[in-house]
Amino acid sequence: MKATKPATPAAAQPEPATSRPPREGTKAAQVVEMLGKTEGVTVSQISEATGWLPHSVRGFLAGALKKTHGMAAVSEAAEGGRVYRLAAGGSQ
What predicted TM-score, i.e. pTM, was given to this entire model? Predict the structure, then answer.
């Protein structure tokens, strides 16, 4: 019988060593700039600006933004849908 390691909670995992800001002029940089607005931005606004499909926008927000760029987005329900913005201290 194999011994299993206890699962490490996601919050306790160290930040990836590859955290870096997106290169200027890329769609990722454009999304980060949009997320930096105090009023926030919706998935449909990001999708319209970048040409990405909504599932790609959500994937970027959930994965690449955090794992590759070391930033975090927070969301809140609003009248026109969910609004996303960079978390306080979410950028390096």
Answer: 0.71
